[in-house]
From TrEMBL:
Gene: bcr
The keyword Transmembrane helix is assigned to this record: yes
Name this polypeptide is given: Bicyclomycin resistance protein
Organism: Chryseobacterium potabilaquae
Position of the signal peptide: none
KW Disulfide bond (keyword) present: no
GO molecular function: sodium:proton antiporter activity
């Protein structure tokens, strides 16, 4: 397998940035289509919401061992195979009416996303060093947020004009283009291969889990993204079914909230040199204050504007916390970049899936007040973790 050529480094970097949002594209592009999918496939809302949760679970679990595999066998071949299978799986999803086949394809797509995204995260650690590495890792988390921003906006129009299947046809074409360009311009970046042994894997995981700062960081990443995914699971049903707006409006709402996540990422990058724990603590306090304001305001005002404005501000704080902690975690063990990135993503997305789907199942939000209640559960858990970090810091 040929190595990455110096003359192609810039193009390969652009391609890496293009692959990074794949998980977000695969989760968010069909959000405005969820109500229509439930109707056309004759399924309850919970069954369609489950297509998102099982994607996240398989995506998260895959990252536990994807990092070890790419650290042992390289990044390039894994990326090519993942993109090729993406093409096939998205095409099958678009052409079936069987919910069980859709579930199977979503599980496969989650697995492929895990391999593709982990390999590209490690790419930046392989190719860049020092401040440039820190710079690109921070930008990477912002680029990753592009998927959730543009995907539902595009998906809303695709749903309106072509139906829910068109979302997956578009993803198949996008994957095919990336596969061709990756084959032509990219190459292997792994310089030294770690042995692929279960004993080695357990030893590395044990070392990482013992690092309390790393462990708490993974938890905070999962909680932060849970807030976004919580709204994704219930938002389109509330906007389309309860408020009576179209799928295009639902797409616009997701677009706006995607920008909130990106703004949080940009703020995280802008304040990257500020003292870490104080800025996380302040962000969490602002987040809780916004959630309480949303809760109280729900007794006086409830419309699409109030819902989106409060969600927008809360998602900024979530994006800020996620950017800081995710950048910190994946750069924490540079000699095992793939493993660290995979473990961070794995734990974060399993937490995201469990908490977001669990809170939606518990509350079954249909109005703004219930959305605020869901946010509060996650914000309070974040406050508990930040408090534990602060207490531990004070005793060291």
């Amino acid at each position: 397998m040929h190595s990455l050529k110096n003359k192609n480094q810039f193009i390969a970097t652009i391609l890496a940035f293009a692959v990074i949002p794949m998980s977000g594209l695969a989760t968010d592009i069909y959000l405005p289509s969820m109500p229509s999918m439930a109707t056309e496939l004759h399924q309850p809302e919970s069954n369609i919401q489950l297509t998102l949760s099982i994607f996240l679970i398989s995506y998260g679990i895959t990252q536990f061992f994807a990092g070890s595999i790419i650290d042992s066998f390289g990044r390039y071949r894994v990326s090519l195979i993942s993109l090729a299978l993406f093409v096939v799986s998205f095409f099958i999803t678009a052409t079936t009416q069987n919910i069980m086949i859709i579930y199977a394809m979503r599980i496969l797509q989650g697995i492929l996303s895990g391999f593709a995204v982990v390999s590209k995260r490690a790419f930046f650690v392989d190719v860049y060093e020092g401040e440039r590495r820190k710079h690109y890792l921070s930008i990477m988390t912002i680029v990753w947020s592009v998927g959730p921003i543009i995907a539902p906006f595009i998906g809303g129009y695709l749903q309106k004009h072509f139906g829910w299947q068109s979302n997956f046809y578009v993803l198949a074409v996008y994957s095919l283009l990336l596969l061709i360009l990756e084959f032509i311009f990219s190459g292997e970046t792994l310089k030294s291969r770690n042995p692929f042994h279960i004993e080695f894997l357990i030893k590395e995981y044990e070392s990482m889990f013992r690092a309390k700062d790393f462990f708490y960081g993974m938890l905070m990443c999962g909680l932060s993204y849970s807030m976004v995914m919580f709204f994704n699971l219930c938002g389109s049903f509330i906007i389309e079914h309860k408020m009576g707006y179209s799928e295009v409006i639902a797409g616009y709402v997701s677009l706006v909230l995607g920008f909130a996540w990106m703004i949080g990422g940009f703020l995280g990058k802008a304040l990257i040199n500020k003292t870490f724990l104080p800025k996380i603590r302040y962000a969490n306090m602002v987040q809780l204050a916004l959630i309480l304001a949303m809760f109280l305001a729900s007794y006086f005002i409830y419309n699409i504007f109030s819902l989106v404005i409060f969600a927008f501000l809360i998602h900024i704080t979530a994006g800020f916390i996620f950017n800081n902690y995710f950048t910190y975690c994946i750069g924490r063990f540079p000699n095992s970049a793939g493993l660290a990135g995979g473990l961070t993503g794995g734990v974060a997305f399993i937490i995201t899936s469990a908490i977001s789907y669990g809170v939606v199942a518990l509350i079954k939000p249909e109005i703004q007040l219930e959305v605020a209640e869901g946010y509060f559960i996650m914000g309070a858990l974040g406050f508990l973790i930040v408090s534990m970090v602060r207490i531990r810091k004070a005793h060291t």
